[in-house]
Amino acid sequence: MKNIIFAFFLLISIKSTAQLTFDKSILDCEDKWVAFPQESNGSYKYGFIYADSQAGLVFDYGGSFKIDATGKIRANPKEEGSTMKVPLYPNKILIALIPEANFEQLKISKVPDWLSNYKMKEGSIERLYTWGSIYNTWGEYKKGLELLEGASKINNEYKGLDGQLAYSYNRLNQYKKAIEILKKALVLNPTDAIITKEYIYALAKSQQLDAAIAFYRNSLKVCPDTTYVPENAYYILEGYFYKYNRVNFDKWLVETEVVMSSNEQIKKIIGEMKIEITKNRL
């Protein structure tokens, strides 16, 4: 009898200790309570991950906790009534799912009361588009394309869908499909900066450089949003680089450097291209 009682209390003790395994990708943790890796002070940040149709994956911060020598959680929750929602961007951090056995210690429920405000119906165009876009952002283009094509079957005029579909096709080297979609999109949205960027990218990558240049120069006149101008110019320059066309590379380099003042990352890549093309006498 004593052994049975001992085993019972041992089981309760085990369930009350924190068993954290940091082996989950953020993408795999929708609608889950998670903990991020231990910080230098020995604490763990915890919270709930959910999908927002506008912001993508979001981390709703719950607070922090430490694990004492006995394995029990010592929670330091956020102030009651406060809210901290943080958009999650692509990274390779592995996080841990918080076992339900520890929910009581953290004073959390499996499904937060506010989650219903963000839930999207399974199979709905909103969910297909949202998760397709999330996968694109995180570099999972095949998964993204599958969902976005599903959304297109429901409504191919859904706002933003053409740009996301083209983005998937471009990153999967399916430039012809991207161009077909973007041509139609440009009829309706001739000044859209993202559609313009993807169209120039597709033309340049498929070595239609004259068409890319013509469209690029026209976009400078009609597009009020200049965010992607450095990228657009770079795509064309890259096209000449990989075509081993030194003469046109040098000519386009002059136009490219005019718009590169604000983009240090692309300037660095161009510097490496200049060295390579000179060294190899391309």
Structure description:
The chain is an alpha+beta fold and 282 residues long. The protein folds into 2 domains: 19-117, no CATH class; 125-279, Serine Threonine Protein Phosphatase 5, Tetratricopeptide repeat. 50% of the residues lie in helices and 15% in strands. It is built from 11 helices and 7 strands. The protein has helices at residues 2-16, 103-106, 125-137, 141-154, 161-171, 175-188, 193-205, 209-222, 229-242, 246-258, 264-279; strands spanning 22-25, 32-35, 44-52, 56-67, 73-77, 85-87, 94-97. Strands 1, 2, 3, 4, 5, 6 and 7 form a 7-stranded antiparallel sheet that branches. Strand 2 and strand 3 (44-52) form a beta hairpin. Helix 6 (175-188) packs antiparallel against helix 7 and helix 7 runs parallel beside helix 9 (229-242). Mean pLDDT is 91; it is low at 1-16.
